[in-house]
Description:
Layout: H1 3-14, E1 22-24, E2 32-33, H2 34-50, E3 58-62, H3 67-77, E4 81-84, H4 91-101, E5 105-108, H5 115-123
Parallel strand pairs: 3-4, 3-5
Antiparallel strand pairs: 1-2
Helix pairs in contact: 1-2, 2-3, 4-5
Amino acid sequence: MTNSENATDLARRLASGADDAPAIAAPERTALSHGGLRKLIRDTVARLNALGIGRGDRVAIVLPNGPEMATAFIAVAAAASTAPLNPAYRADELDFYLTDIGVKAILVGKDEAGPSVEVAARLGTPV
């Protein structure tokens, strides 16, 4: 099964509801629909594949718990192995885990500029 087929299968299994039905919700936030979740999965797989990341590769996810972490985990898992890391880790802890896990990339919040980005840059790991 190719990454594209894996993504399609995962998207279908996890987001099998009607396009406009809510799939992921959080208090005081706009819900992500099943159609939106399927699109997020397809787009994430395509983006990771374009970066040369696929099955067997590891992607660290450094996000706080919440809907963004949940959807990132699902979307990345359709293309690669996920390695969720605690965003409260210090630089030395992140250095250890990123090196030990052998990540090919790290996913962080859009405006992240903390230790995870600094350590990834020092290790030459794409963010």
